[in-house]
Amino acid sequence: MYGAYIEGFMEEKDSVVQEMEQYAAQHYVPIMENDAIDAFLGLLTIQQPTAILEIGSAIGYSAIRMAQRLPEASIVTIERDAERFEKAVQFIDAAGCQERIRIIEADALAQEADVVVDKTYDALFIDAAKGQYRRFFDKYSPAIESKGVIYCDNMFMHGMVLQEEQDIPKRKRTMIRKLKEFTHWLMSHPDYETTLLPIGDGLLVAVKK
């Protein structure tokens, strides 16, 4: 209802970000919606993390947006798709963020990605395979500092979490079931203060106690 009004106050995007949005639309690469990325960046601005870990780089869109908003932050991001990884490297270089964004080509659940947990982070952003969110969380949440924040995108999966199972396409039923189980599990986790925000496609925010 107020989207156009709010967008009028958003920062003007530079040419690289605009090119990325066009590329994503043309090649069906999922990136965060405008209202979601703006709200996400607002939360990060409040938090002011200096070390961020991202699971699911895609073409580097959110990593670049984070780097632009948080000039003091360093970002480590993981992407398993070779084509998207290469495109992300190109965009990161074009944006001049190569000194602050370290992108790793790996399956985040494979041993090859273990190298990223040799340090700790203030924030973790999970935006990869939705049916694997619990496994991503279990693997990478120990690397998050106390009072750090874990952000998870696409928690609504375009409204499918509200549908009866028989109304969900068969190929997506297991993924939706796992996503809902993860949401219920984390919302009641004693070690996190968790909020599910109706922003974009659903943004879950968990603060580590």
Offer a few descriptive terms:
globular; alpha/beta; Rossmann fold
How would you describe what is shown here?
- The protein has 209 residues and is an alpha/beta fold.
- The chain has one domain (3-208): Vaccinia Virus protein VP39 (Rossmann fold, 3-Layer(aba) Sandwich), CATH 3.40.50.
- The chain is 38% helix and 21% strand.
- It contains seven helices and seven strands, in the order αααβαβαββαβαββ.
- It has helices spanning 3-7, 15-27, 34-47, 61-69, 82-94, 133-140, 170-187, and strands spanning 51-55, 74-79, 101-105, 121-126, 144-152, 192-197, 203-208.
- The chain has a seven-stranded mixed beta sheet, with helices on both faces.
- α5 (82-94) links the parallel β2 and β3 (101-105).
- The longest helix is centred in the C-terminal third of the chain and has 18 residues, at 170-187.
Any chance you could write out the topology, listing elements then pairs?
Layout: H1 3-7, H2 15-27, H3 34-47, E1 51-55, H4 61-69, E2 74-79, H5 82-94, E3 101-105, E4 121-126, H6 133-140, E5 144-152, H7 170-187, E6 192-197, E7 203-208
Parallel strand pairs: 1-2, 1-4, 2-3, 4-5
Antiparallel strand pairs: 5-7, 6-7
Helix pairs in contact: 3-4
What's the story with the biggest beta sheet? 7 strands, mixed
How many helical stretches? 7
Q: Share of helix among residues?
A: 25-40%
In CATH terms, the superfamily is: Vaccinia Virus protein VP39
> What is the rounded distance between the termini?
35 Å
Count of DSSP strands: 7
> How many discrete domains?
1
Stated plainly, the CATH topology is called Rossmann fold
CATH architecture: 3-Layer(aba) Sandwich
CATH class: Alpha Beta
**pLDDT < 50 runs, ≥5 residues:** none
Strand arrangement within the widest β-sheet reads 3-2-1-4-5-7-6
What share of residues are in beta strands?
Answer: 15-25%
* Radius of gyration based on Cα positions: 17 Å
**What sort of overall outline do the alpha carbons produce when their principal axes are compared?**
globular
Topology order in helix (H) and strand (E) letters: HHHEHEHEEHEHEE
Structural class: alpha/beta
